[in-house]
Amino acid sequence: MKDEVTAADSSSRAPLLVLLLAALAWLVAAGLLGLVASIQLHSPRFLSDCPVLTYGRMAALAETAFVYGWLANAGLALALWILGRLAGEPLRAQGWAVGGAVFWNLGVAAALGGVATGDATGFALLGLPAYVHMILLFSYSAIAVTGILSWSGRMRRVPYASQWYAAAALFTFPWILSIAHVMLFSAPARGVVQAVAAGWYAQCAWTLWLAPLGLSVAYYVVPRATGRVLPSYEFASLGFWCLVFVGGLTGGRHLLGGPVPAWIASVAVVSAALLLFHVLIVFLNLRGCFSGGGIALRFTAFGIAAYAVGALADAATSFHGVAAQTQFTYFDEAARQLALYGAVSTMLFGGIYFAVPRITGRAWFSAGLVRAHLLLTIGGILLLAGALCGAALVQGRDLADSAVAFAAIAHHTRPWLAAATAAQAILLLGNMALAMNFVGTACRILNVSEPASFNPPSAMEAHAP
Amino acid sequence: MNGKPQRDPRVDQAAATDESLLDAHERLLGRHPDDGARYRLLPIGILFALSALVLFSGTYLNRYAGHYSASIYNENAKPSIGGAAAPKMDPLAVGEIQFKNVCITCHQAGGQGIPGTYPPLAGSEWVTGSPARAVRIVVYGLKGDVHVQGHLFNAAAMPVFGQQVTGSVYNWNDERIAAVLTYVRHAWGNNADPVSADDVTAIRKAVGDRREMTEAELEQVK
Q1: What is the DSSP track for A304-327?
Q2: What is the pLDDT of residues A148-175, one digit of tens each?
Q3: Are A138 and A178 spatial neighbours (Cβ–Cβ below 8 Å)?
Q4: Which residue in A224, A237, A260 is closest to B14 by CB distance?
Q5: Which residues does B103 contact at the CB level (< 8 Å), separation at least 6?
Q6: Mean pLDDT along residues B201-211
Q7: DSSP string of B17-44, one letter each residue
Q8: What average pLDDT does this structure show over A21-37?
Q9: CA dist B109 → A322, B62, B100, B187, B188 (Å)
């Protein structure tokens, strides 16, 4: 029986810990920025005297730090770790990953500086000023080199679902960023084509880059932690290709009723519905996570549930009748938080709780902080999504009524937005618990005498349930 | 510990090794739906779910995609069978475009032609006179001597424009010919009645296919 912590883990430590440490630092920073932006939504005077601290920049800063700081770093760390584990050997070309990680985070810091001084582009999920695109592109590709080497050196000729999703995510980000850069900055398309290109990027960043990073982790954690073969695994590849082919086409639904040819929105509506097939397969495959288990499984279960609910909500709100109520309201924000926080982040949390003891060879520093993080995260996300949906209902109802003044609408949504602020504070507390716990655990590496005790895992039973 | 998960939140125990995970799932991929003589309902269910989604998608796109046209912005626009009716255009505008694309080469921008070579259109009795003559000139072309405003022109021939006429290099439909005639009969101080596409069609049908007209033949047309 092989040891649970392999030489592959301890000798791959450097790039993974650098990426994870940066990820958690950005996570806490994004939480702080998001909290300020959330307060400003219902109390506009808060910190409004300094241009750097105004809502527009705060919201863009929070989004940029969250997506490119937290999700990208953590997703890459876990993708490299999983690809390395399934290759059964230490990561190769680690210098590329470490160097890439350093430059990626310098790039993200430069992007935040640019956004704070007013260079944000104004495109959703692509607030990055144009001048950091190249450094992000090349540093991401450098980190990806390590992952691709692990992919090509994998143990089995037939790759496993985690490997498909991780490898896909390594390729998609450079692809979509370079296209968005050309279409929006270096040779900007004119008129509505620009809105179409920006919508395409925002959708692809979610469906083709971040979601696969999260799914890669979930597909790895669930069978490893439950010890059971994934049910209906033979359909997993259908789910994967469905996401690859259809995922990028769903961006146009945000342009519903806009000045774009009707087919763009209609194709997006249909794609959002077809994407439900992908979600169905993922749900069937990973349903074992709902039967309970350790911390990693609980986070994963929440993430899968949020992923499914989010996809259903996306499909439903892309229809004209429903969109008439929800478009241009806080519902968009609720759906995005459910996707980026509720789905991808929790899957990554699950992966982090599973991976860090193996990477460091040490148990987590504090059991209390682990439990606190789980409770605060689940509570915070439910409250956040619920409060924003409540605000969206009020806003959608009032916007449709021409007798209600705009200021009155803002007033009616205030209690809901205050609840959303409370949720942001709860999430921030939870993420600070995770960051402290991680730093404590990492410091234990220096302490040779406390290795984590892993039970030797058994072999997975050969037959599917 | 035999796979029983231990509930210390500080270390998530694994219940299976990486190798066995890869092995077990690789084995699944080659499996047939009725493996082991057990008939499984799920694959059929998944097939039906996919079919239902594809059916919905096709129906929705057929109804709301506006034929993928770049100019249809309203998804509720009724899809028209056999293409939408061509929008009505101002014949003067169409004629001007045709004139500036083609006729202008010889007859010049002001319709004054080139003395001795290309006859003028501005003030020409052939242009503003009988529409039946003007239509024949454009549809069938004109060869040989022609007198315009008392001057003789015979250095060049008027090319054939008509649709399905032997030797036609342009193959313009009747609507275009009517539009360009309407334009030249109206421009540069000319002030004659417009020519309709039906007039052109009637003449083309009546005369049939033939070679270029001559001045003598045209003078017999009233």
Answers
A1: HHHHHHHHHHHHHHTSHHHHHHHT
A2: 999 998 888 889 999 999 999 999 999 9
A3: no
A4: A224
A5: B121, B180, B184
A6: 85
A7: -HHHHHHHHHHHHT--TTGGG---HHHH
A8: 96
A9: 58, 48, 8, 11, 10
Residues of B in contact with A453 (CB under 8 A): 11
Q: Where are the domains of chain A?
A: 7-444
pLDDT of the residue at B175: 85
Identity of the residue in B5, B22, B49 whose CB atom sits nearest the CB atom of A156 = B22
Q: What pLDDT was estimated at residue A306?
A: 97
All residues at 6 or more sequence positions from A283 whose CB lies less than 8 Å from its CB, including other chains: A304, A308
User: What is the per-residue pLDDT for B84?
Assistant: 53
From chain B residues 52-71, the ones with a CB under 8 A of any chain A CB are: 53-54, 56-57, 60-61, 64-71
Whether CATH 3.90.1720.10 fits A7-444: no
Whole-number mean pLDDT of chain A?
91
From the options 1.10.760.10, 3.40.640.10, 1.10.1740.10, 1.20.1740.10, give the CATH code of B91-220.
1.10.760.10
* C-alpha to C-alpha distance for A216 and A282, rounded to whole angstroms: 11
B148 forms bridges with which residues in the sheet?
Answer: B151
Tell if the pTM clears 0.90, that is, is over it: no
Chain A contacts in chain B segment 25-44 (CB below 8 A): 25-29, 31, 42-43
Distances in Å between the Cα of B4 and the Cα atoms of A258, A357, A457, B15, B16 are: 55, 19, 10, 8, 11
- pLDDT band, very low/low/confident/very high, at A465 (cuts 50, 70, 90): very low
For residue A296, give every residue at least 6 positions away whose Cβ sits within 8 Å of its Cβ, in sequence order, or none.
A221, A225, A350, A351, A353, A354, B12
Which residues of chain A are within 8 Å of residue B18 when distances are taken between CB atoms? Answer: 85-86, 88, 155, 224
pLDDT at A353 over 90: yes
How many degrees, rounded to 5, is the angle at CA A357 between CA A351 and CA A360?
115
Query: Which B residues 97-126 touch A at CB under 8 Å?
Result: none
Residue limits of CATH 1.10.760.10 in chain B: 91-220
Give the rounded percent of residues in chain A with a pLDDT score beyond 90.
66
